[in-house]
Amino acid sequence: MPPREFAPLYVPTGDLGKGIPLPADCHPRLQLHPDRLAFFHLISNLKTQKRTGWVDHDIPSPESISDHMFRMAVMAMCTSDEKLDISKCVMMCLVHDLAEAHVGDIAPREGIPQDEKRRREAATIQNIVHDMLHDSPAAKQIEALWTEYEERKTPEARFVKDLDRFEMAAQAFEYERAHGKALQSFFDSSLPKIEHDDVKGWAEVLEVERAAAVYNAMAYQQPYINQQPMATMGMKAGGNRNALGKPMNSDGKREWSHGLCDCFSACGTCCYACWCPCIVHGKNKQRVAHLEDKGSPDPEGGACCSGACWAHCCLQTFFGLGCILQCMNRGEIRGRYAIEGGCCGDCLSSACCGPCDLTQVSREIQLEEQSFGRY
C-alpha cells in the first residue's frame, strides 16, 4: 500500500470583511465568510472517509469516521454517572477525531511516528481554529474540547476515551457476526484498557454476548463466526439465524440454508406439505411468531389448527389461492433470516411448488429452533 499523502493546510482568504459576494441589500447575517464555509466543506470528509482499521480487514462498506463519532456521542448520553458533565462529553465525542477530516484516520501499520501524528493533528486543529473560524467563540470551544481530550486529565476526557475504545470493540463484534471476519486484535487493544465503571460494565456484557456466540457455535459444530443477522427493532434476539454459516453478500444477504428442490431430504415435512399444506403453513406461522415474540421456540411446535391454517385452507379449497399466503410468509421469513430474493421469486416458488416452499421455510425455522436445543 502506498504511503499516505497529506494535503496542504487551508490558506485563509483574508479578514472577516471579505465575504461571499451578495446583493447590496442582503441582510448582514447572510454575509457568510468563505473561510467558515471552507470548514463546513472540510468536515464533510468525516462522512465519507472510512475507518482505516476496517478497510485493512476488508470489511464491506465499513463505517465512516463520523459514524464512529456519532455513536460515541449517543453512548455518552446513556451513562448513569452524575458526576460527569454529559453535555461536554457529547460535544467532546463529536470533535475528538475532527483533525482526521484533514489528515485522515492514521493507522499504526502505516509506520507514522506518534509524535508526527500528533503534530499533524494539532496543526490541523490550529488551522481550523485560526484560519477557518478566526478564533470565534465556537472555534475556541472546539479547541478547548479537543485539547482536553488529548491531554486526558479530566474525568470527562478519560470517559470519552473509554467510549472510543468500547465503540470500536462493539463495532468489531458486529462485523464479526455480519461478515465472517476474525477481529480479535480490536478487542485486545481496547477492552482491557477501559476504566470507567459504566463503560466497563457495557464491555463485560459485550464479552458475555461474544462468548455466547462462541459457545453456541461450538455446541452445534458451526464456525465461530456465524454471520448471524442482527435483531431489528421490535424483534427478540432469538437464536442463530444463520446456523449453517452461509456467506453474506455485499448487501448483507445470504442464500437459503437448503435449496428449494432439496425438500426430499426432509421427506416427512414434504409429504405433510403435499397432503395438508394448510397445517404446515399454520405451524410455520406460529413457530416463527413465537420466536419473534418470545425469543424462543414454540414448545408445541405450532398448533395444527390455527387462524393461519384455516385461512390457507379456505383460500386453497374455494379459490385455489393458498399460495398467496405462502408467498407473503416466505417474504417475512426472508426478512427475518436476511435471505436474498424478491417478491417475484416468492410468488413463483409458492405457486409452482407449494410443498417445496413450505418445506424450505419449515427447515429454515427449524435450524433456528435447533440452536436452542429444541430437537
TrEMBL record:
SUPFAM superfamilies: HD-domain/PDEase-like (SSF109604). The keyword Membrane does not apply. It catalyses: a 2'-deoxyribonucleoside 5'-phosphate + H2O = a 2'-deoxyribonucleoside + phosphate. Coiled coil: none annotated. Its cofactor is Co(2+); Mn(2+). Residues 61-178 form the HD/PDEase domain. It is an enzyme of class 3 (hydrolase). The keyword Lipid biosynthesis does not apply. Keywords: Hydrolase, Metal-binding. InterPro entries: HD/PDEase_dom, HD_domain, PLAC_motif_containing, YfbR/HDDC2. Its EC number is 3.1.3.89. Homodimer. Belongs to the HDDC2 family. Catalyzes the dephosphorylation of the nucleoside 5'-monophosphates deoxyadenosine monophosphate (dAMP), deoxycytidine monophosphate (dCMP), deoxyguanosine monophosphate (dGMP) and deoxythymidine monophosphate (dTMP). This is 5'-deoxynucleotidase.
